[in-house]
Design brief:
heterodimer, A: mainly beta, 7-stranded mixed sheet, 11 strands, 57% strand, globular, B: mainly beta
């Protein structure tokens, strides 16, 4: 199984809502990532978890809150978002080793903040 | 910090060969990867270079020169389905940190 599964595929939320994005992988990967991607732009790294601990936070606003309940699951909790946060949110996983190569991406959650 | 530069757009004819360049500035460099992303899809891994030289995988090859902070992706026998965005990405600063370049949109014409 070389799949990263993200839910939901689409999400529309108001600026006062609280919602969560979910990501799951069963490849035994020890690194999991959240990226944000705007149209016609590259994926922008937000957070990295390694061995279920937050290892990298790319100065992301606190209205985005990541959580890694176990080695297979990664959540992104959203609260009080702004319209400019509308984007495709991608989850990825990898071995994370120095010689590790491939990161596997989920299909993403397309988020619209209204 | 890290910065990666790629051409924004490349156009080529079906059956031709195209090279997409990537120059980078990073600290703590581990390796250079290439990803393909079709419109509406997720990035998919193409290749990875940790050491200088050429890596070949089918129609795709990737090259790295660490001394020049430069790499390229070579696509041969182009097909229409190769029309997509191509990103170089560096693992730098940490073996877990994967940062993407600005991306190159490749358009393959008949």
């Amino acid at each position: 199984d070389t799949e990263v599964t993200q839910t939901p595929k689409h999400l529309v939320m108001g600026m006062t809502n609280k919602k969560s994005l979910k990501c799951e992988q069963h490849m035994g990967h020890r690194a999991m990532y959240w990226y944000k991607q705007k149209a016609k732009k590259p994926p922008e790294l937000m957070f990295v978890y390694s061995y279920e601990k937050l290892s990298i936070n790319e100065s992301v606003p606190s209205r985005f809150s990541p959580e890694c309940p176990n080695s297979s699951l990664l959540n992104l909790h959203l609260h009080a978002l702004q319209p400019e946060d509308s984007a495709l949110y991608l989850c990825a996983s990898s071995q994370g080793s120095e010689r590790g190569t491939e990161a596997f991406f989920g299909q993403g959650t397309r988020l619209t903040v209204v | 910090g890290q910065s990666l530069e790629q051409p924004s757009e490349v156009t080529a004819v079906e059956g031709a060969i195209v090279q997409i360049n990537c120059t980078y500035q990073t600290s703590g460099f581990y390796g250079l990867s290439w990803y393909q992303q079709h419109d509406g899809g997720a990035p998919t891994f193409l290749s990875y270079n940790a050491l200088d030289g050429l890596e070949e995988t089918g129609r795709f090859s990737s090259f790295l020169s660490r001394s020049d902070s430069y790499g390229y992706l070579l696509l041969q026998e182009l097909q229409m389905k190769d029309s997509a965005s191509y990103f170089c990405a560096v693992k730098a600063g940490s073996s877990y940190k994967l940062i993407f370049g600005s991306g190159t949109r490749l358009l393959v014409r008949p």
